[in-house]
Amino acid sequence: MKAGSKLLGALSAAALSSTVLAVSAVGLPVVMAGPAQAQAVSNIQVRGNQRVEADTIRSLVQVSPGQNVGAAEVDAAVTRLFATGLFSDVRISRSGGTLLVEVDENQIVNDVVFEGNRRIRDEQLSATVQTSARAAYNASTAQADVEAIRAAYTRVGRSDAVVSVQTVPVENNRVNVVFTVNEGDRTRIEQINFVGNNAFGDGRLKEVIALRETGILGFLQRSDIYDEERLRADEETLRRFYYNRGFADFRIVSSVAELDEGRNQYFITITVEEGERYAFGNINIDSTVPGIDGEALRSELETRQGDTYSAEKVEDTLVNLTNAVAAQGYAFAQVTPRGNRDFSSNTISIDYVIDQGPRAYVERIEIRGNTKTRDYVIRREFDVSEGDAFNQVLIQRARQRLEALRFFERVNVSTAPGSEPDRVVVIVQVAEQATGEFSVGGGYTTGGENSGPVAEVSVTERNFLGRGQFVRVSAGFGEETRSYGLSFTEPYFLGRRLAAGFDIYHSQNTSGSYDIERTGGSLRIAAPITNDLTAQFAYNYKEETFGDDTGVTRLDPVSGNPFLSTCGNPDPNGTTGWGAPLFTASPIINEAICDSPYTTSSVSYALTYNTLDNQNDPREGFFVQAGQEIAGLGGDAEFLRSTARASMFSLLSEEYDLIGQLSGGAGNVTALGGDLRVFDNFFKGQDIVRGFRYQGIGPRQNGVALGGENYVNASAEVTFPLPLVSRDFGFRGAAFADAGSLWGVEDSSLEGIQGDDFALRASAGVGLIWASPFGPLRVNYAVPLAEEDFDRTQEFSFGFSSRF
Question: Which CATH topology does 2-105 take?
């Protein structure tokens, strides 16, 4: 140590009957010789400084000429000098009336360089390390940065990454700090095992957690990368899964991740203890607050006697009751659930006790860790703000909302004492995650307006510029189709929970007997009425062109006769071909084509009731939507279109993960003031009854689909995991039965019209669903069981899938 080399010289100075104090780099004062009492200092000399001004060092020493200086003053001066981070060593000694301050300055970091990194970009690593340009170099900090870089690589599945650091001197006592990375091979999860689970199989529990075993498409996903924090998060997910299905005594005994270094693979074993399954017993509301009638609040209960116990329903009830009593003016009332287990009947009775809580206020809400997301995006998820009454239930509900945004890997909400006994500081700690997606998908759709090979490219950002806004740009390409779209949504329009946005689109299709080109857009707003009920309003405008302006001759697929794709009749006797205009065999369609382009200006509204447990892969709950579209605010169309659809999902078997779905829908379109255009009808087929082509059912004229003014449909389906196939591949099987009808045209008395009456179509079949990295894909095989002679059937269909 440099300080030790100075001690010998200091001893000789002590022989001159002066007091000598030396402080080493570790900051411990040593009285070398002379009397112990403090003595006055006449001047301060600074040595060893190159960049730091001597006056700056003197100001940090905080000793003035004439001041008595002892060991305590010297120790404090050394501490202050080291605290600046500018010096690697500090030595203070005294000879007579002179206080000598000797320093060794830290080298300054000229630049921080990363080498060998491909999986993690320089910008991401720069945000990970503490060493930065123009700051003093610190070896301990650099070693800590090495570990931080290794941890970052572990999170992306590179547990065997090797990181080293070295310094390269440059002029003026500066250094370049170089972190060299050997990324190694990807470390994946080979196997996830569960021990102690009886109510649910391994496959079902693997679907619950986020971590996945490496599959054949592992190169397209990142869920097969082990991360300790993600495993801890999965533990909490498992607890909530069991707690919401009656297992109130569930606990995780252990979760162990073992790395096979030779194979560079993780093996995870999660041991659980399920306990008994409970149902709700008696449900009571007890109030100790004068003026609050517990019985009057029973409509706020989400828990029902006899239902399977669910912690989530208890939480929802707490929020409902808390909001209800606050609305009555009792801001400090607290709702506490008290459970009473009956082990003989396996029931849990719940007493919701309403007490007058302590008067505590939110002093402030501190947001930490948000490097991208703006503070106000996080704050607006809280139903409380600075100065409001503190309520733990509402604070935890805000945490759940923040997690549901999918902006953050982790959200932790804690509290700390405020400046006064009745003040509370709410601390929100978040860890950002990627919110942008670039998607490339492809497939082959059959039987529809956009039949044939299709590809779609889209860029989606869920947290645009950190403002919480949703933006999506997409482009689709097919053999005979083109489509482009732009969507934008502001989830908090005008500072309220109003989701407002717009959509712009353009599409072209040349696959049918006539071309279709559409350009349009909409302005929309959605307002939540309750947690499950939402109202939507929109203004819509589109322009549609039907037909082909190129004069290309088309052939009738039945007779082979030519259709002249031009409007007007060049022969007064109508003898050209079959008479012009002849796009199709249907005079109704031909007339409508010649009247295009059309413009439609409309307003629409809808109510949506949604209690699905998972929006992407539902197993329980309802989705019901009903709405109307009114056209006639300008444009060429005047109609009232009413539609409704509903789906119910139910988990038929937890053990085998069988999901049942019942769906139904209906629609009617009615002219307002004039005739209804044929292209304003509903055109239906495989979208309501599988086993039929797009536009495969309903009224026809000379074999050409006219659509219908009314439709109804119903469907029953069961989906299940495929046996002998790992669930990590994302495949599920389906068995279904469909029924429906499409009927009603403006003038059914015209020549050649068939199928204008209600006639039921039905089919049954099986399907294969794949939750692919490109989106949900599905192939169906359906056999029509009830059909009309003029219908168009198609047993196989393939395309993108939607569950509801």
Answer: Ubiquitin-like (UB roll) (3.10.20)
Tally of CB atoms within 10 A around 414: 12
> What is the DSSP-derived secondary structure letter of residue 321?
H
- CA nearest 237: which of 496, 614, 624, 775? 614
Lowest mean pLDDT among 99-103, 553-557, 721-725: 553-557
Cα distance between residue 779 and residue 801, in whole Å: 9
Q: What DSSP character marks residue 688?
A: T
Alpha-carbon distance of 521 to 537, in angstroms, equals 14
CB burial readout 689-717, b (16+ within 10 A) else e: bbbbbbbbbbbbbbbbbbbbbbbbbbbeb
Strands 174-182 and 108-115: parallel
∠ Cα 759 763 767 (to 5°):
150
In CATH, the number for domain 436-547+583-800 is 2.40.160.50
- Please report which helix (H) or strand (E) contains residue 319, including its range: helix 311-327
Indicate the domain borders of the chain.
Answer: 2-105, 108-182, 188-273, 279-356, 361-432, 436-547+583-800
> Which DSSP string corresponds to 604-641?
EEEEEEE--S-SSS--SEEEEEEEEEEEEEEES--EEE
Superfamily the domain 361-432 falls into: membrane protein fhac (3.10.20.310)
* Residues 210, 207: Cα–Cα separation, whole Å: 7
Contact 326, 309 (CB under 8 A): no
Report yes or no: 401 and 381 within 8 Å, Cβ to Cβ: yes
CB 502 within 8 A of CB 538: no
pTM of the model: 0.68
The predicted pLDDT at position 396 comes to 84
Per-residue exposure over 352-362, b if at least 16 CB sit within 10 Å of its own CB, e if not: bbbeebeebbb
Helices (H) and strands (E) in the chain, counts: 11, 40
Q: In the numeric block, which tokens belong to residue 43?
A: 């001047």
pLDDT in tens, 450-503: 455 667 788 889 999 999 999 999 998 877 788 999 999 999 998 888 999 999
**Residues sharing a CB contact under 8 Å with residue 443, sequence separation 6 or more, in sequence order:** 453, 454, 455, 774, 777, 798, 799, 800
Please provide the distance, in angstroms rounded to a whole number, between the alpha carbons at the two ends of the chain: 73
Three-state secondary structure of 402-443 = HHHCCCEEEEEEEEEECCCCCEEEEEEEEEECCCEEEEEEEE
The angle formed by the CA atoms of residues 537, 542 and 543, to the nearest 5 degrees, is: 170
Architecture of domain 108-182: Roll (3.10)
Let me know: does 135 contact 109? Beta carbons within 8 Å: yes
Q: Are both 188-273 and 279-356 of the same fold?
A: yes
CA distance 283 to 297: 12
Give the separation between CA 482 and CA 479, rounded to whole angstroms.
8
